[in-house]
Every structure is written in C-alpha cells, then in structure tokens.
Amino acid sequence: MTENHPLVRFLKRICQENLTGSKNLIMPSYLDGNALKKSLSREGFFALNLNITTIFDLARDYCDDYISKNKLKILDNSLGQIFLLQILKKLSRKKSLDYFQPPTFSPGISRSIYLAIKELRIAEFSSRNFPHSAIVNSKKSEDLLKIMQEYEKTLKKQNYIDEADIYLQAIKYKKKNQPKKEIFIVPSNIELNYLEEVFFWKIILPESKVIYLPTPGNLKKPASFYFSESYKEEENYPENLLDYLYDIDKIPSSLPGKLNIELIQSHGEFNEVKGIIRKIKSQNIPLDEVSIFYTVQEPYSQYLYQLSRQYSLNITFGNGISIKNTSPAKLFFALIDWIRDDYSIAELYFLLTGGNFEFKSHQSNPDIPTPQQVATLLRNSPIGRKRNRYIKGIDLVIKQLEREIEQVSEDRQERYRQK
Question: In terms of pTM, does the model score above 0.90?
Fold first, then answer.
C-alpha cells in the first residue's frame, strides 16, 4: 500500500485535520482492521487515537444503557444454533412441523435453519410480519414461522438479545453522553445488510467521513455496498495496474510495470491449493518469497495446513490455523458431536477410531482392548443412541460373546474326541 493509495491519502488528511480527536475507522471485521493497521505501520503511517471498530460494535455501544438496564445477554452464533436445535427437537416431538421432517435433527440442519432465521430477522422481519409471500413452499413458510415464534419466546425467556434486536434498539435509543468531536471514517466499498444500513444512515452517516475508493474498470459496485451509488463523484486518483484487474485488455501503455496474471481452472478448492503448490515446486520458487492470498480463510487455510504436514512444507499462516487440528481439540469436539447427536454409536465409533487417544493401561497390559476393538464391539451392539441404553446394550454384547466363546470351545472339544 503506497502513499498515493486513496485510503492512505484520505487517512493522512483526516488525521492531520484532527490530530488528537477520536477517529473510528469502520471496517467489516477487527481482523481486516488490524491487518490494515499493520500494513499502514509498515508504510510508516502512524496516527493518534485512530481506532478500529465495526458497525455491530457501534450499535452495541449505542444501546449499552438499554442492555444494562434490562440485564440482557447478547446471543452469539454458537448458542443461537443450540437454541435452534432444542426448538427443532421440541416441535418435532409435538409433531408441529410439516416441511422439516428429517429422521434426526443434526447440528448441520439446525445451523442452516438458524442462519435463515437470522437473515430474516436482520431484514427486519419477525413472527408479527413474517414474509409468507417471499417463500414459495407454503409448508416451509409455516414451519419457519413456528420456529421463529419459538425462537423469539426462547430469547425472551432466557433474557437474551440477538443481533437484529441490537440494531433496532440502537436506532431507538441513542447512547447518552456521547463523546463530542468523534469522527467515523468509512470506506465506500463497505458491505451492509438491511438493519446495518438503517442504523448507519440514521446514526453514523451524519458524523462520518467517507473514503471514496475507485471501482476497478469493467466492474460495477455490488448493490449490497452502501455507497454503490456515490453521493458525490469519486476523486481523480492516480491510476495503477490493479484498477484494470477485471479489464486487462484495456491497460494503458502509459502505466509502468506489467500485470502478469495467469488464470488456472481447477475442480474444487483442494485441487486449487494443490495446483498452487505444484506451480511453486515446478518453478523452484523459494517458499519465503511466496505469498498466497484467498478470498475466505476456510477451507483454503485448512487444505494448505494438511498439505504442509503431508509434504513437510514450512508455511506460516497470517491468521493462524484452526484449533481443531490439535489432538485434544479433535477429541473435545468429537465428544461434543457425540453428545449433540444423542450419544449415537455412529459418532462414538468415529471418536474411538480417530486415533486421537488410546487407553493408558493398554501399553502395560496387552489384554486391555484398544479403542478400535471397543469401537467394533459397540458398532455390533443394539444400542443405536441414547445414554441410558449403553449399559444394557454392552451387557447383551458381552453375553453374546461369551456364548460364541463357549460354542467355539465345544466345537474344538468335539473335533479332539473325533481324532
């Protein structure tokens, strides 16, 4: 990022005009914001009281008094999915659902439905104004309405507030004693959902400074970008090669350098990552001279990690790797999946055969079964799932094995007598 970049030039001007005042740079996430600050630091750019924040955190600050007064707890995505799983099981037991009728409700299904409910609520829909006309299947629409009604009851009963309610309350109740001379800096390509846009327009925009970033040639701004239709013409910034990333054939000859881009087609993300590693190897490029960028962290970082372990490649991950790559974490999350799936034998089988642990006494006493042997025993049992069926199921398997041992012994005795 150079000094001529629109973002750097604008930030320098804002910081010079407001040397000591609080300046809040609004970013999609703290991860993006911290990466930007590191990049600016490397370029020698420093500013006093330049803080990174997000639209959600600003909304939470504005309704902080409301949350404290009503002793509310903020719902996170993990707990929201657990609530949805409990709601789905409850409605299923009552036979209240017509569209959602799987044999069992898995965490994956509950996550998908939770995201659908969350998206509806963030668009300012609730059980009172549910958009039946937007959903083609009437049974699906009725089921989602019932789920949303139970979801809202659960939030009220458990004294929780979700993301949609935070934005709604922030719009209604401004934070008291708001610090004066607080400046909000927002890039023009920020992406906002409906309630974020309403909150931003009513509360943040009047006090904000907008960084109008140029759009690359031959590319329209997405409608989800708040400033997709600029309120003013973008400034005439110096052109660079990346402005023609989507229109390579029209790069002016006056621009220095060359945009060397090669497009490679692969089937699936894993093959994309393998193709990158293969390209580096074929051209003998030192790994410390290579930077790999991806649009989303997962699954690319996980695939790179797996290949680095398989081929002993020295790779550094800017955002770290998933904790699930460690054996203790694998065991922990496998136990959670087993409990969530109502103690099913299928989940326990994968837990035992995953190679993440072994029975300690097996090393000193070879007669102690291995986890794989126990897994095979349980897989052949009539347990299926449910916690209270394990003792009875294991007893039945043991009795069956004892009968088989006795039968084998009798057959051997009979063969010896015949001899």
Answer: no
